[in-house]
Structures are given as C-alpha cells and as structure tokens.
Design a protein that fits this description.
The complex is a heterodimer of chains A (about 120) and B (about 650). Chain A has about 120 residues and is an alpha+beta fold. Chain A has 2 helices and 5 strands, in the order αβββαββ. Chain A has 2 domains: about 40 residues; about 70 residues, OB fold (Dihydrolipoamide Acetyltransferase, E2P), CATH 2.40.50.320. The longest helix of chain A has about 40 residues. In chain A, about 20% of the residues are buried. Chain B folds into 4 domains: about 300 residues; about 70 residues; about 90 residues, Orthogonal Bundle (Cytochrome Bc1 Complex, Chain D, domain 2), CATH 1.10.760; about 150 residues, Glutaredoxin. Helices cover about 60% and strands about 5% of the residues of chain B. In chain B, the strands form 3 sheets. Chain B has a 4-stranded mixed beta sheet with strand order 6-5-7-8, with helices on both faces. In chain B, strands 1-2 form a two-stranded antiparallel ribbon. In chain B, helix 1 runs antiparallel to helix 10 and helix 17 crosses helix 18. The longest helix of chain B has about 35 residues. The chains are: A alpha+beta (about 120), B mainly alpha (about 650). Chains A and B meet through helix 1, strand 1 and strand 2 of A and helix 5 and helix 20 of B.
C-alpha cells in the first residue's frame, strides 16, 4: 500500500476518534440535562417548604404577610415578598420586625403559610 | 517539587520539542538524492525515533511524580490505582493521556521504514510526523497555567499553543540543522553543501516568522501570568521570566549574526563554496541550540512555579518609575523633554545603522551613547521611592468593616499628629519637623497602598514605626487613608449624576436583614443601581415613606434601596413601625461600620448615596425632597454606556 494512503487512513481514524468522542460527550451532557429536568418536574404533588426571614408587614386586609427571607430550598432564592396564610391566626401571631421561621405548603406556585414561629432574635 | 520531577519534566519537554523540530527540519530541507543528505535524513529519523521513546518514558516518570505529589507519598508513583486516579480524574491526567496517545501513535508510525521514493509518499510521511508531534506538543497548553486564566482562558490557550509550536519548530530544529551543517562542512560531505545551504536559508526565513510568533504570544502569556512590573521584578516567576528573556536575547543575537553575516557568505559555486563559512554557521547554530536548551530548563521551572500574578511581589529596588512623580517636581520638565528628544535621536541612529550599509559601527555606537544619555536625563525625574511592599496587594479588601477598624486605630494612634480628619493639624503636629503631611491630598493617592503599609510598619522621617500592630490592622489603616482620599475627591460630586468618567469607588460593605444570610454591596455589581440611605428616626420617616411609595417604580428601573439606620439599632425594622410599608432592605447587621465609612463621604443624620452598576459612587445628597431628581439620575445611569471596568476588590 502506498504510504500516503496509510497516512490518510491514520488521519481519518484520528478524526473519527476525536469526532466520535466529542459527540459522545455531547450526548452525555444532553442526557444529564434531561435527567435533571425530569427530576425537577417529578415533584408535582403538595409539598412543604421551610424558610427563615424577617416580617416586613402584616396586612390581613390584603391577606398577606410580607417577609424578607433567605433562599427557600427547592423553591425560590432570597427576596422580599408577600405570602398568603391559610389561617387568620398567622396574622395575629407576628408583627413587623419579627424574625421568623415559617412553613409553606401546597402545590407550587400555590403555596400558603401553614405555620410560623418567632425566632426570638430581633 | 523535587529535583527528580523537575528533571523528568525538563527531559520530557525537551524531547517533545525536539521531535517537532526534527520532523519539521526534514520537511524544510526537502528531498535529495545526495548520499550525505540521505545519510543525514536517516540520522535525523533515528534521532526522532529515540526522542519519541525518550519523551514517552519520561512522560511516565512525570505522571508517577505527579501521583506522588498529589497523594504526598512516594510509593504512589509506582502504584497502579494511584496512577489511574491521576490519569483519569485530573485535568493534568486527561491532557497526559491525549498527549501520550498521540506520542505512541507517532512512535509506531516512525518505527516503520517506509519506502519514500515517490514524492507524494515522502510528503505524506514527513507531514504526518510533523502533524502528530505538533498535536502532542500543542495539547500541553490545555493543561498548563494558561488553562486556568480567568476570564478568557481560550485566548491564553491559543497564545500558549502558538508559543509552544513556534518554539518547537524553531528550537527543536536547531540540533538537526547543526548535524547537517557539520556533515556538509566535512570533505566527504561536499556533495550535500548546496542542499545544506538551501536548508539553512529556508530555516532562517521560517525562523524570522517563528520568532515574531514567539514574541507576540510571549507578550500575551506574560500579560496574563505576570500582569505588572511589580510582579515581573518582585516574584520568583517574574525573575525566572527575566532570565528566560536574557537567554532569548543571546539566542536572537546569534541568529541575527548568522542571518546577516554568515548566510550571505554561503552563496557561490556549489563545489567550492564556503566550507569555513559553513563551519562558522554550524557553530552559531550550536550556540543557539545550547541557549534553547537552557531556555527549556527555565521554562520547566516556570511551568511549576506559581504565576507571578498570584504571588505577593517583593520589590527588589529602592525606587520605581511613576508618571505621578513628575507632578511633585515641575522644574524637571525641561530635563525630561530634552532627554527624551536625545533618546529618540539615538533610536533613529540605531535604526539607521541597521538599514544603511555604510558607517554601520559609528552610527550604532553613537546612537547607543545618545540613547543612554537621553534615558539618563529623562528617566530619573520619574523615579520615586519604593519599598519591598510597594506592589503588595492589601491583605484586607476595601470594605466598610476594615475602614471602620482603620478609623478607630487612626483615632487612637495617628490623630494626635495627623489631625482628627487627616489634615496634618493634630495637637502634637506643631512640634514636628518636617510637619505631618495632609493625608487627604491628592499627593497621598500617588503612593501605592504598599508604600503606605511600609511607612506605617517602619515609620518615616519624624513618624515612629507601628510594626507592633497586626498586619490586618496596618492594612485597615491603609484602607482608611484611601477612604479619606476618596472622601476628599467626592467633594466634587453633587446631587446630580455627571456623565464624567466615574472614579470614586463606593466602599464595599457586608450587611444582613434580620436573620437572613449576609449580603454585600458588591453582590449588586453588574445588576442593580444601589441607593444607600443613611437615616435617623423620626426625622427621616417622611423621606423613607416617600421612597417606599416609589419603590414599585424604582425597582423595575434597576434600583435597589438599602436603608441603614444611623444609630445602628439591631431592631431597626421593628422601630420603623407596623404602619409603614417599607419593603426594601433595612440593615440590621453591619450598620455601624457602614455609617462610619459613608460618614466620611457625607456626615449627617440623613444622607443618600447613589452607586452605579459598576460600584462607583456617582451622586450624594444630604436632605433630598421628592423623587424627581432620583428618577432623573437613574435614567442618566440607565442610558449610560458602560466604559469603566468594575473596581478591584483591593485598593492600589
């Protein structure tokens, strides 16, 4: 066989190897992405989420307690927002400036505070 | 890094480079049917074969050494599981596998003795050797320092690939060229002299381009890995780089001599030409090759040294050059102007000596003298005192906590002489000669943070040393002095955002709202405009209510408001009361430091500071009414084209 043909064969094999490896890697990444997305959508039933924060306003007339909270694992990053409460007792239990730990229950994004307790600090 | 590991890396790198160069030299020299040329070609082929196996063998040693270093026990170097861990689980290992796979392929390929009489076969086989060797060498870039450059690793890796390949072809080809020139300069080798002349000329032409690639990529790599004059002179990495540059200069001088003096003498009749010249050329190329080997040794050390950018530079000289130094000595201007003109004249003369054929030596010597004289006149006015710590980065970031700590130390240890606000007018100042300087003046900003640190540590003129303070405390004092200077500069800021280039860095601060995780001002960089509001109840209550009412408008415009109680009360939110609907962050943790620091910029019971998305202070106001001006400011900032990079975490 002519030497140049040998060289062409080697380079073809090299290119195929690199290309194949790149494609395989791409497929792996795509598979991991898919699995991650599936795992995220899997939890669709009612769930509980726990958060900590500080009460900024209690507005029973609007039906919300505004809380500046830390990241709520699995649900939302840290922010200030209003949460509904299932029981009117929640509005009486806390006042502006209270540091609280609270539990949200329901099917996201329809969540409501089901339990709230003062942390005792500030 | 033990000697064994260094030696293994050196041999491996040198062999990898020599393989590329030898293969490239065979391509450059071209085909020939002369006996001496053929003998040379098979010698170089044999050399290539040996070098590939050498590279592979020492590559294995390097892998073993890496395993032993990573697991910090010598036995790991010969344990299969440890080697597999390094090879399969580290970036170094992945690059190692790819490179040694390619080298193995190359070794197998050159082991065959192909029949290369047809031109197409010759080209294919020679080209393939170069290709495989070059790929194996270039892959080194993916595992070196360049792969760790932030944020543009791609540029750094590309520069590294260019540098490696150019070095491979240039330095690696030298030994093969020496062998050819020696063979051709013997009596028996006369038949290959025209071939050797052609080979040397082609190499010389290629080398010119390669050296340009080497210099360009070298500058890019040095900028990424060293980054500053301080790191170049002050760190181990930088000094190694200087040694390398000196060696490169020697090699380049030899190459220039060969190109300008020896190569032209090789022309002429084929049978009789330049045997002595050829021997001379062989000697110059040998000098280059030895330099190249020494450069590779330095490169090995550079490869394992932490890059200068990440080291603390220890400035070796008692002076440094700074443009600002001239502002202190206005009467030196004529000296600088005249000196620079003389130096330019010298450069022109040197350039002429390179271009002109006649009077080369006098022009060169005269130009050199003029250049030196001009530099000697023009440069000294730029010199300013420097200390070992001059280029050190502060160990403590420019943050409110550090500035507030520095302010407390200043009040305790410094204010008696320097004055409570840094004006040099403390009660003890009158007795001192020379008197303490005004620390708020622009003059202070001309000195590096490292200079101030040195003076605090070791004292200066009438000032005693404060080396007994902890290093963090001394850096905090430096941060406080920087904040004093910034506060002085902030006097030209008003309530309206000017479109001038922002320069006053808003000191970073950490804060928390209630029990939530701590945040920092710099978290908003690149995302939000921040209005820091220092407030006092009850006077500030209407203003806070006004801002709260506008918060829904401001928030979508990209503004975050951070309210800081001037009294630093931890129950600030509770004190705001139940009826006010203030939903922007109110600082309950970290307020005293913020108030202390931002009080330098604008003291008072109520003050508002507008900070742009890059982290620069743009406007400040003591008692704002209404939100029209704030909205106008925000609009100005939102329409502004971003031209200034965000400030560094540390002062300079």
């Amino acid at each position: 066989m002519a030497v140049w043909k040998v060289v062409v064969l080697i380079d073809l094999a090299l290119a195929l190897g690199i290309g194949g490896g790149y494609l395989w890697w791409g497929r792996q990444v795509a598979r991991l992405d898919r699995e991650l997305a599936e795992a995220r959508t899997a939890a669709t039933g009612p769930r509980d989420f726990h958060g900590e924060g500080v009460v900024r306003a209690v507005l029973p007339e609007l039906g919300v307690v505004v809380i500046t909270h830390d990241q709520i694992a699995g649900y939302m990053p840290a922010m200030t927002m209003g949460f509904r409460a299932t029981s009117p007792k929640v509005y009486d239990a806390v006042e502006t400036g209270d540091a609280v730990r609270f539990t949200l229950s329901g099917v996201p994004p329809n969540l409501a505070i089901t339990a709230i307790e003062k942390l005792g600090r500030r | 890094m033990t000697e064994l590991g260094l030696v293994a890396r050196f041999v491996h790198l040198s062999a990898s480079i020599l393989v590329v160069g030898s293969a490239a030299m065979l391509v450059l020299a071209g085909r020939s049917d002369r006996a001496t040329a053929l003998a040379w070609q098979s010698r170089v082929e044999a050399l290539t074969r040996a070098l590939v196996w050498l590279a592979l063998a020492f590559g294995v040693v390097v892998l073993g050494h890496q395993a032993a270093t990573l697991e910090s026990r010598g036995a790991a170097a010969i344990e299969a599981p440890a080697l597999a861990r390094v090879a399969l689980e580290t970036r170094f290992g992945h690059v190692w596998l790819v490179r040694h796979g390619l080298l193995l392929l190359l070794g197998a390929f050159v082991a065959f003795r192909f029949d290369l009489r047809r031109a197409v076969d010759w080209r294919a086989a020679r080209g393939q050797s170069v290709l495989l060797a070059a790929l194996a060498l270039a892959a080194l870039a993916a595992g070196g320092h360049s792969a760790a450059v932030e944020p543009s690793a791609a540029v750094a890796i590309a520069a590294d690939v260019g540098h490696l390949l150019a070095a491979g072809v240039w330095a690696g080809a030298l030994p093969a060229l020496v062998v050819l020139l020696r063979a051709a300069s013997r009596d028996a080798g006369a038949d290959a002299r025209p071939y050797a002349v052609v080979a040397a000329r082609r190499f010389s032409r290629a080398a010119l381009a390669l050296v340009l690639v080497l210099l360009t990529s070298g500058v890019v790599i040095a900028a990424a890995q060293v980054g500053s004059v301080g790191a170049l002179l002050g760190t181990h990495y930088g000094r190694l780089l200087m040694v390398k540059l000196a060696l490169v200069l020697v090699a380049l001088t030899a190459a220039t001599l060969a190109r300008r003096r020896v190569l032209p003498a090789l022309g002429g009749d084929a049978a009789t030409i330049g045997r002595p010249s050829m021997r001379r050329l062989g000697r110059t190329v040998l000098v280059e090759a030895v330099c190249a080997l020494a450069i590779l040794a330095v490169v090995t050390l550079l490869g394992v040294a932490p890059p200068g950018r990440h080291e603390t530079p220890d400035w070796p000289l008692s002076f440094r050059l700074a443009l600002g130094a001239l502002a202190d000595a206005p009467d030196a201007w004529p000296l600088v102007l005249v000196g620079s003109q003389i130096a330019i004249l010298g450069v022109v003369a040197v350039l002429c000596s390179l271009v002109l054929r006649a009077a080369q030596l006098p022009l060169l010597a005269g130009g050199g003298v003029l250049l030196l004289a001009g530099v000697a006149m023009a440069v000294p006015p730029f010199a300013t005192d420097a200390y070992p710590t001059t280029y050190q980065r502060p160990a403590v970031p420019y943050q409110a906590a550090s500035i507030a700590a520095g302010a407390a130390l200043y009040a305790r240890d410094c204010a008696t002489c320097h004055g409570s606000s840094g004006g040099g007018d403390g009660p003890a100042a009158r007795a001192l000669s020379p008197p303490p300087p005004d620390l708020r003046a622009h003059h202070t900003a001309l000195h590096t943070a490292g200079d101030l640190y040195w003076w605090i540590t070791h004292g200066r003129r009438a000032m005693p040393a404060f080396g007994h303070l902890e290093p963090e405390q001394r850096w905090s004092l430096v941060n406080y002095l920087r904040a004093l200077g910034a506060a002085e500069a902030a006097r030209r800021l008003g309530a309206v955002v000017e479109s001038a280039r922002p320069s006053i860095v808003a000191p970073d601060f950490a804060f928390a709202v209630g029990p939530t995780a701590p945040r920092a001002l710099r978290d908003y960089r690149g995302a939000r405009i921040v209005l820091v509001v220092v407030y006092t109840l009850p006077a500030s209550r209407p203003r806070l209510a006004e801002l709260a009412a506008r918060y829904e408008t401001l928030s979508p415009l990209g503004v975050e408001i951070i309210a800081v109680p001037a009294d630093g009360a931890p129950d600030a939110i509770k004190r705001l009361g139940a009826e006010s609907r203030i939903f922007f962050p109110v600082v309950t943790d970290g307020a005293p430091e913020i108030v202390r620091t931002y009080g330098l910029f604008m003291p008072g019971a109520h003050a508002e500071f507008l900070i742009d998305r890059q982290g620069y202070l743009r406007a400040l106001e003591a008692a704002p009414r209404g939100t029209d001006r704030l909205l106008a400011n925000v609009q100005t900032l939102n329409e502004e084209r971003v031209v200034v990079a965000p400030p560094s975490e540390h002062v300079h």
